[in-house]
């Protein structure tokens, strides 16, 4: 029902916006959406010469991208005199709340000088944005430029819906043409995350890590986790195409080493000890620069090149087994490096690592975008092989729900991976995930063989 309501609201919004999109003027070239804001057309009441302008901000610009059926982030970059872009990115969370994140990006000398030469603050302050240029046609969006005062707040927001002033549009175009590539990549990643969030909470999630699966089966899911080392790029493309929007996350094991990997012989000397219950694996020394370089410069990029949308990162629990400063730092280096690839980084387990990382001054957003937590409402009996639901009063359930809800409240995506045989316990999982907007997958095998 939530999805249906959002679609209906979207079409109603679209029906209101389209009749307004026929106005004409100069094309801004910007990624902006139609927001209902009154346009400034009258002459300013205060003379420009009397203004106390900001020593920090040269000019600001809106860089929003809104569609009727998407809650893409709203972004307002400000060009600073220290040759940086300060960007306020507002995220709409899946429960409707908004988070604000401020980021800095470097401008080259050439980019900054081009903007500085193009932007005449006095002219911008005094111009009439409605002054038309009959030689240009505008696409019907909002366009704004901001002039800032000493207190950091804007003195004037110049522009509006369908501004036609040629000089206004020239200033705006030069700013867009000189925004740093890192800023554009970050914004595009935010749009991708917003698209995931749009489906999040009612999408179908599946984890298949034992052998290759039929691509048509995988395409039935909104989000799938596979071991992409076993698939070709063409097969991953097939999953995307057949699913018409399926997100493919690849399993990547950074905290242990399996003896069936083709690189096993190259790195087995870095193993720390046996992995209980998994005979083919050993814990890895993640503090090794050689291992870090392999993960970040070879393995992870190769998986992204195949077309994967992100990583399902396993065995950060190596820190729980070997809780040393060196292991913590090694994990931090790898996880930060994966996030720097501007892709989804879903950590499987790893609560001890994440807690220690934040206790040492780190922010979760620097190492993960989401958490996959196993056995919150189920448990594995390693002696008998049975997969059972946990009791209602189970202390581990309380611990893990508190843990995942803490990060869900801050904007992290949450996935549950449960193991059950039979129908017992499944309704409890479904009810919890519907209430908390979590994706979940229930497997009847710890091998995750589908």
Verbal overview:
This protein has 2 domains: 17-185, no CATH class; 200-443, TIM Barrel (Alpha-Beta Barrel). 36% of the residues are buried. The two termini are 29 Å apart. It contains 14 helices and 19 strands. It is 34% helix and 23% strand. The protein has an 8-stranded parallel sheet. It has helices at 2-17, 109-118, 121-126, 166-177, 181-199, 215-218, 233-243, 264-267, 289-305, 318-321, 325-339, 351-359, 395-408, 426-436; strands at 57-61, 74-80, 84-92, 98-106, 142-148, 154-161, 205-208, 223-226, 247-253, 256-258, 271-274, 281-284, 310-314, 344-348, 370-374, 378-380, 387-389, 413-419, 439-443. By secondary structure, it is an alpha/beta fold. The longest helix has 19 residues, at 181-199.
Total strands: 19
**What best-fitting shape do the alpha-carbon axes yield?**
elongated
Major sheet details: 8 strands, parallel
Helix content percent band: 25-40%
What class do helices, strands and sheet pairing give?
alpha/beta
Main CATH class of the largest domain? Alpha Beta
CATH superfamily of the largest domain: Aldolase class I
Query: If you compute it from the alpha carbons, what radius of gyration comes out, rounded to the nearest whole angstrom?
Result: 26 Å
**Architecture (CATH level 2) name of the largest domain:** Alpha-Beta Barrel
User: Stretches where pLDDT falls below 50 for ≥5 residues?
Assistant: 1-43
Please report which band the strand proportion falls in: under 5%, 5-15%, 15-25%, 25-35%, 35-45% or over 45%.
Answer: 15-25%
CATH topology description of the largest domain: TIM Barrel
Helix run count: 14
Intertermini distance: 29 Å
> Can you list the strand order of the major beta sheet?
7-8-9-13-14-15-18-19
Rounded mean pLDDT score: 82
